[in-house]
Amino acid sequence: MIHTHTYDALVVGGGGAGLMSAIYLSRDPSIKTAVISKLYPTRSHTGAAQGGICAALANLEEDHPEWHAFDTVKGSDYLGDQDAIEVMCEEAVDVIIELEHMGLPFSRTPDGKIAQRPFGGHTHHFGQGPVRRSCYAADRTGHMILQTLYQNSIKNGVEFFDEYQVVDVLINQGRCVGVVAYEVSTGDLHVFNAKAVLFSTGGFGRVWSITSNAFANTGDGPAIAFRRGIPLEDMEFYQFHPTGIYKLGILITEGVRGEGGVLRNDLGERFMERYAPTMKDLASRDVVARAINQEIREGRGINGKKYVYLDATHLGKDVIENKLPDIADFCRTYLGVDPVKDPMPIQPTAHYAMGGIPTDMNGRVITDASNTVLEGLYAAGETACVSVHGANRLGTNSLLDLVVFGRRAGLDMARYCLEAEIGPLPENPTADIEATFAALLATTDGEPAARLREELQDVMQDEVGIFREGKGMERARVKIRELQERYAKVVVMDKGTRFNTDLMEAWELGNLLDLAQVTTESAINRTESRGGHMREDYLTRNDAEWLKHTLAYRDARGEIELRYKPVTITKFQPKERVY
Ligand SMILES: Cc1cc2nc3c(=O)[nH]c(=O)nc-3n(C[C@H](O)[C@H](O)[C@H](O)COP(=O)(O)OP(=O)(O)OC[C@H]3O[C@@H](n4cnc5c(N)ncnc54)[C@H](O)[C@@H]3O)c2cc1C
């Protein structure tokens, strides 16, 4: 059955970015706003964020938005757009106060201000050592943000379509006019006609086998957009977080190192002193993740295995129980290790997409190097690429990105909704997705999606992971093509309509395959090392040729075409990165 709805504004995704924009949209009651989310909003991945959200509040020591901007630019390996970074770091201060006023229960300093702690890559005086910039609510910062934003959206009367999965975006006469969603409980399709649509569907860590990301992080938004002709920006830059629990990938926040935790190899050495003499364990994530892998490769993993230790035993029970309670719980539950007494076994874990749907600073989706706006379509949060993170994101800058650019997108959508008329739907808006589902359901004797997914995740982990080189990525390219062919015959065992998660998982696998392909093609073409993209056959950064953003398109034959776009530089000229 097909249902039709009409709204002014649609927000696809109920995480931090989506809810922040919904709050801003719903401040004007004349703008009819709905959030569509495949998960209950409070189960979004934002709720898993632990360590903090940064702003140069200077609550504990001198700090300035300009220092924050410099750190972000340097962290991005000079690929971030500096105009957007300046906006983010300036607006950070006031958006944190706004969150506090909405009711967010931040941890406090003894004199009652918002508490702040150090985080990787955040420095004072342009690189002179760690600064306390990350605001936190113990190690449950994302949980508190998500709950606060959800409560405020409910208060403002935002309508929610929970457990509705958006499966297509409707673009007609050059403008976005709505989306198609699959109601998970019934299998019905819903056509949403609207003036403005925001994609805030989060990340896609599920492309890799060891990941900190939730099961739902399958990159639906960027994959849908890409198939409708919208480019994806800088997809070769994917962040591996240094400290995931060994084999499981579950995140141990950088806040542990912010509080004084250190990394040790099999010899008990604090090896980061060798790789980053000033910032040591608080160097930026790409640097620390590579150092860990280097130690492992050179045989100094613990007992020669593929992990090292994160040691917090010297911090004492009080710090661990009060400032890192969830981490302590995770370690006891999943590892049987008590971080008060024993070091934690960790390895890098696939964590964050720097790339995504290209947008301007107001969340408007842009489709080419001259920043042509696709009317009516917006993106914010991890799904979007503004680009404030460039080639490598600093810890705590993502939660900040969500609220700063979620707010800006909400404001611009509100403006647009008051000016624009609703656009006509294309003819037969559900035809394409119905054909896709029919094909997935038609097969009776193919392979299960889970098998193909595992093979994809393994090849991406091995060949398009922390270290990359041309030959390995060629192997990944061939494997992805093979998997795409096998995907045409994937079997969905459940042929029913009620909670057919089997069908949704198979459809999501199609998204993972497309995103893996774009990531690999973008990475093969970029013959340099920068931030999260580390090539062993091109070891250095090459600004003369590669100080530019990638824009990947799908051409009419389904092949990927790569174009490039200049980086915006304002104050900070590219320099060698030393921590
Ligand atoms: C374990 C962990 C810890 C982290 N810690 C920090 C931290 O301390 N500080 C920091 O700055 N960053 C941190 N990050 C990164 C940060 O949390 C994420 O980048 C950010 O929360 C993403 O928010 P979002 O709003 O873009 O998406 P999400 O919060 O992931 O929300 C995505 C939403 O989209 C919906 N959705 C997805 N697909 C569809 C679809 N097809 N149809 C309908 N709805 C859909 C989902 O239901 C969900 O509501 C962490 C990440 C992880 C994984």
Give a verbal description of the structure:
The chain is α/β, with parallel strands linked by helices and 579 residues long. The chain folds into 3 domains: 2-158 and 352-419, FAD/NAD(P)-binding domain (3-Layer(bba) Sandwich); 245-349, Succinate dehydrogenase/fumarate reductase flavoprotein, catalytic domain (Flavocytochrome C3, Chain A, domain 1), CATH 3.90.700.10; 431-545, Methane Monooxygenase Hydroxylase, Chain G, domain 1 (Up-down Bundle). Helices cover 35% and strands 22% of the residues. The chain has helices spanning 16-26, 65-75, 82-102, 141-155, 220-227, 255-258, 272-275, 285-297, 317-323, 325-335, 397-419, 431-442, 449-463, 470-487, 501-525, 543-546, and strands at residues 2-12, 33-37, 53-54, 116-123, 130-135, 159-162, 164-172, 175-183, 189-199, 232-233, 238-245, 262-264, 308-311, 344-353, 357-358, 364-366, 373-379, 384-385, 447-448, 467-468, 490-491, 534-535, 548-554, 560-566. Helix 1 links the parallel strand 1 (2-12) and strand 2 (33-37). Helix 13 (449-463) runs antiparallel to helix 14. It starts with a strand and ends in a 13-residue tail after the last strand.
Keywords for this entry:
24 strands, FAD/NAD(P)-binding domain, Methane Monooxygenase Hydroxylase, Chain G, domain 1, binds flavin-adenine dinucleotide, Flavocytochrome C3, Chain A, domain 1, 3 domains, single chain
Quick overview:
With 579 residues, this protein is α/β, with parallel strands linked by helices. The chain is built from 16 helices and 24 strands.
